Amino acid sequence: QVVFALNQTLLQQESLRAGSFQIPYTTEDLIKHYNCGDLSSIIFNHDASQVPNFINATLPAHERITAQEIDSYFRQELIYKRNERMGRRVKDLLEEYPDKSFFFAFGAGHFMGNNTVIDVLRREGYEVEHTPAGQAI
Q1: Count H helices, E strands: the chain?
Q2: Where are the domains of the chain?
Q3: pLDDT at residue 48, rounded to an integer
Q4: pTM as predicted
Q5: Rounded to whole angstroms, how far apart are CA atoms 75 and 51?
Protein backbone atom coordinates (compact mmCIF):
# COMPACT_ATOMS: atom_id res chain seq x y z
CA GLN A 1 0.00 0.00 0.00
CA VAL A 2 2.86 2.38 0.77
CA VAL A 3 4.50 1.75 -2.61
CA PHE A 4 1.13 2.15 -4.34
CA ALA A 5 0.45 5.43 -2.49
CA LEU A 6 3.90 6.79 -3.34
CA ASN A 7 3.56 5.86 -7.01
CA GLN A 8 0.09 7.42 -7.26
CA THR A 9 1.29 10.60 -5.53
CA LEU A 10 4.26 10.87 -7.90
CA LEU A 11 2.02 10.27 -10.94
CA GLN A 12 -0.37 12.97 -9.73
CA GLN A 13 2.50 15.43 -9.17
CA GLU A 14 3.90 14.69 -12.63
CA SER A 15 0.46 15.32 -14.15
CA LEU A 16 0.22 18.62 -12.29
CA ARG A 17 3.67 19.64 -13.50
CA ALA A 18 2.86 18.65 -17.09
CA GLY A 19 -0.40 20.60 -16.97
CA SER A 20 -2.60 17.59 -17.70
CA PHE A 21 -4.17 17.71 -14.23
CA GLN A 22 -5.50 20.78 -12.48
CA ILE A 23 -6.56 21.32 -8.90
CA PRO A 24 -10.21 22.47 -8.94
CA TYR A 25 -9.48 25.50 -6.75
CA THR A 26 -6.56 27.75 -5.95
CA THR A 27 -5.06 28.74 -2.63
CA GLU A 28 -6.61 32.16 -3.20
CA ASP A 29 -10.06 30.53 -3.52
CA LEU A 30 -9.50 28.73 -0.22
CA ILE A 31 -8.44 31.93 1.55
CA LYS A 32 -11.37 33.92 0.13
CA HIS A 33 -13.98 31.38 1.26
CA TYR A 34 -12.32 30.97 4.65
CA ASN A 35 -12.13 34.73 5.30
CA CYS A 36 -15.75 35.18 4.25
CA GLY A 37 -16.83 32.48 6.68
CA ASP A 38 -18.15 30.38 3.82
CA LEU A 39 -17.26 27.06 5.41
CA SER A 40 -20.12 25.37 3.57
CA SER A 41 -18.56 26.09 0.18
CA ILE A 42 -17.70 23.17 -2.07
CA ILE A 43 -14.03 23.62 -1.18
CA PHE A 44 -14.58 23.02 2.52
CA ASN A 45 -17.04 20.16 2.07
CA HIS A 46 -14.53 17.70 0.64
CA ASP A 47 -12.26 15.71 2.91
CA ALA A 48 -10.18 14.88 -0.15
CA SER A 49 -8.77 18.38 -0.23
CA GLN A 50 -6.60 17.44 2.75
CA VAL A 51 -5.17 14.15 1.55
CA PRO A 52 -3.86 12.90 -1.80
CA ASN A 53 -6.53 11.50 -4.08
CA PHE A 54 -5.56 7.96 -5.07
CA ILE A 55 -8.94 6.87 -6.44
CA ASN A 56 -9.38 7.34 -10.16
CA ALA A 57 -11.48 5.62 -12.77
CA THR A 58 -8.52 4.52 -14.88
CA LEU A 59 -7.15 2.19 -12.21
CA PRO A 60 -7.65 -1.56 -12.61
CA ALA A 61 -10.20 -3.02 -10.18
CA HIS A 62 -7.61 -4.49 -7.76
CA GLU A 63 -5.73 -1.17 -7.60
CA ARG A 64 -8.99 0.74 -7.11
CA ILE A 65 -9.68 -1.38 -4.01
CA THR A 66 -6.19 -0.59 -2.69
CA ALA A 67 -6.78 3.12 -3.40
CA GLN A 68 -10.10 3.05 -1.52
CA GLU A 69 -8.47 1.34 1.48
CA ILE A 70 -5.70 3.94 1.60
CA ASP A 71 -8.17 6.79 1.16
CA SER A 72 -10.29 5.45 4.02
CA TYR A 73 -7.25 5.04 6.26
CA PHE A 74 -5.99 8.59 5.60
CA ARG A 75 -9.43 10.09 6.10
CA GLN A 76 -9.90 8.29 9.42
CA GLU A 77 -6.39 8.72 10.83
CA LEU A 78 -5.32 12.09 9.44
CA ILE A 79 -8.58 13.97 9.45
CA TYR A 80 -11.32 12.55 11.66
CA LYS A 81 -9.22 11.37 14.61
CA ARG A 82 -7.07 14.51 14.57
CA ASN A 83 -10.10 16.80 14.64
CA GLU A 84 -11.73 14.69 17.33
CA ARG A 85 -8.62 15.02 19.54
CA MET A 86 -8.39 18.77 18.97
CA GLY A 87 -12.10 19.33 19.62
CA ARG A 88 -11.94 17.32 22.83
CA ARG A 89 -8.90 19.33 24.00
CA VAL A 90 -10.81 22.57 23.44
CA LYS A 91 -13.82 21.16 25.29
CA ASP A 92 -11.64 19.95 28.19
CA LEU A 93 -10.00 23.38 28.58
CA LEU A 94 -13.35 25.17 28.50
CA GLU A 95 -14.75 22.84 31.15
CA GLU A 96 -11.63 22.88 33.32
CA TYR A 97 -11.47 26.69 33.37
CA PRO A 98 -15.09 27.92 33.01
CA ASP A 99 -14.25 31.44 34.26
CA LYS A 100 -11.43 31.98 31.76
CA SER A 101 -11.57 33.42 28.25
CA PHE A 102 -9.88 31.54 25.43
CA PHE A 103 -8.86 32.22 21.88
CA PHE A 104 -8.29 29.12 19.75
CA ALA A 105 -6.71 29.36 16.32
CA PHE A 106 -6.64 26.47 13.86
CA GLY A 107 -5.42 26.02 10.33
CA ALA A 108 -8.07 25.93 7.61
CA GLY A 109 -7.73 22.15 7.29
CA HIS A 110 -9.46 21.72 10.64
CA PHE A 111 -12.62 23.27 9.16
CA MET A 112 -12.71 21.25 5.94
CA GLY A 113 -14.89 18.30 5.09
CA ASN A 114 -16.78 16.17 7.57
CA ASN A 115 -16.11 15.80 11.28
CA THR A 116 -14.37 19.16 11.65
CA VAL A 117 -13.28 20.64 14.97
CA ILE A 118 -16.44 22.76 14.79
CA ASP A 119 -18.56 19.62 14.28
CA VAL A 120 -16.96 18.00 17.34
CA LEU A 121 -17.69 21.04 19.52
CA ARG A 122 -21.26 21.38 18.27
CA ARG A 123 -21.89 17.69 19.04
CA GLU A 124 -20.72 18.46 22.56
CA GLY A 125 -23.36 21.20 22.81
CA TYR A 126 -21.20 24.26 22.16
CA GLU A 127 -22.31 27.13 19.95
CA VAL A 128 -19.58 28.14 17.51
CA GLU A 129 -19.72 31.42 15.59
CA HIS A 130 -17.53 32.66 12.77
CA THR A 131 -15.72 35.96 13.27
CA PRO A 132 -15.11 37.57 9.87
CA ALA A 133 -11.65 38.82 8.98
CA GLY A 134 -11.06 42.30 10.31
CA GLN A 135 -13.86 42.16 12.89
CA ALA A 136 -12.88 42.95 16.45
CA ILE A 137 -13.26 40.11 18.91
Answers
A1: 5, 0
A2: 1-124
A3: 47
A4: 0.59
A5: 7
